[in-house]
Structures
1.
Amino acid sequence: MDKYKHFKITDAVILGYKENSFTMLVGKQLSNDKYQPLANVEFGFKPEEKTAFREIK
């Protein structure tokens, strides 16, 4: 059994977010200037990171 996780790294953009149960939808920009959703990110945000994100206008 492999005890190491395998990670893939890619550039991503925030496509959207929701406040209740803070979650971001991230995706990638395709060559035709459309976007493909990749994942919902729910965990790993520190409270100060959420606050900083909310202050972006």
2.
Amino acid sequence: MDKIRQPVPGAQPRVRFDLPVEAAGTTSGAPEPTDHEPAAAGSMFRHPIYFGFMGTVGVGIALFLSYILANTESLLLWIVTALFIALGLDPVVRWLERRKVPRPLGIVLVLGALLGLVAIFFATLIPTIVEQTTQLVTKAPGWINDFLNSNFFRQLDVEYHVLDTINEQVAKFFQNAQAVGGIFGGVLGVGTTIANALFGTLIVLVLSLYFLASMPGIKKWGYRLAPRSRRARVEELSEEITRGVGNYVIGQVCVAALNASFAFILMTILNVPYSVLLAFIVALLAFIPLVGGMLAAVVVIAVSLTGGWQTALIYAICYIAYLQFEAYFVSPRVMQKAVAVPGAVAVISVIAGGSLLGVLGALIAIPTAAAVMLLVREVFISRQDKN
């Protein structure tokens, strides 16, 4: 055993990138003595060329950073998505750590369970979803023809000449060479879009793994950036924010799963067509706060109309009743350890996040608003109360 433990001749120890050791004997909060007096207020007027040059440099740096952000938007979205996923999985890993499971093993178990669920989803639901999507696309022209031949549309066409307007707009569209070229360019770019989506998914998974594995180290480095006198307070607030975001992600997954399960059971009872595909759509839309449930209701009700207005009416009544039950009973209990945001702030943050970053922005809007409100309450308002 001693020979096995001996290092291999010529082998070098791995260089570790550790934190610098804190200086001994330093007192927290003690200001360091300075030998220089603060610059006079009129120094800017005594050195106008220097301040003008530094102002120009500052504007140039700002423009350069703006250019970098504009050209790395996809990378930033991948990083934010990966960090969001890592924060959502971190509470599970820490729960395993409290049960004496080493963190590396906990990460492997969590990622293994996640990949297993994804594999089961692809193996069972994807073929059914593809089949039902094909059927939906095949039957859609028949539904359109039935609508065009209905008495309602004929009366509408007699009064407003809808068909003539549609034919005129279609003719103008195909006469426009730029529009037609855009269609073919979009068709040819589908392969590139799919390849970019797969590459982005791979990058997000890898970054999520790295963030999850190095989460304690990342936090430790971040806390060291704060002044020594306020480091404990910064650590306390940061832990509360990350804990709330992680619990929010897990809670939103549970709420979406319950929502999709109820919708699937209800559609199965009412014989709504394409129930598996629609349940998958409901689960995706349920991740969007506030408006996701109503969007899912509109989609399913529109499809259930093919089975008769009675089916659509029963589904609408039952599903909207479930949304009320979810809002007042399910979500408060699932989200009790997550973030708490007032309704008006939640609506504004979701709209702003969706406008800036799309669906991802709507997903992270509420945790971000909760973090901002926590910082305002614990830092700004606390400081104002002391003055």
3.
Amino acid sequence: MISLLAAHAPRLDRACKRIAKRGGEAVLIDGTLIPIVRRTGRANRLNYSGIHRRHGLHFLALTDEKGHLVWISAARLGRTHDITAARRDHILTHLRTAGLGALADLGFLGLDDNPDHP
């Protein structure tokens, strides 16, 4: 069932191109923690988010300028920071390729270290 849903989910590059094709200029990006029930054992400690003080799974979400969800990342460990997840998904590369800008919160401060392409 999950593989069927994943097959229909849009890829990040295609989602960015679709927004640019519709005339969009920017996307909104944010990370969120989906709470989970804590299991015992050392392996589950990686799902603990110190910021939220609870266990969960971390996701990045991209919306268009109207707030419609266009892409969501794969689940990551709850301790993953927004900027780390964005770098692993190469979000800046996809946005620049599509010619889009992004609005984000302070969790992404420092993501764009290239002053030539703000």
4.
Amino acid sequence: MEHVHVYSNKTLLILSDGVVFEEQLHLYLLDLDNTILDTARISAPYCDGIFHLSSDSTANTCHFLFIGNGLWHITILDRYQWRRPFSEPYGVHRQWGWRQAFSVSYNNMK
């Protein structure tokens, strides 16, 4: 377990595999009954991601460094929002679907 972020009545779990050169982050958003509301995975082939939580996280947003030369942002949404499949940053993998309970974005710092 890398990080737990609680917002309102939701809990975001950020888990890693700990496999060198194939590191992955697994994101799970749970409600009060531990029902999974949304999931995603951040990974890229042959990348050694090192998770580092940023100190500027807010109530509903978690900022961290992982793979790439930028800052990742996970925003917990107050309610489900429409999601266009395949519209997320490179390395973000989700099951097919049209809605999301959290959004993932990436800002390159170069």
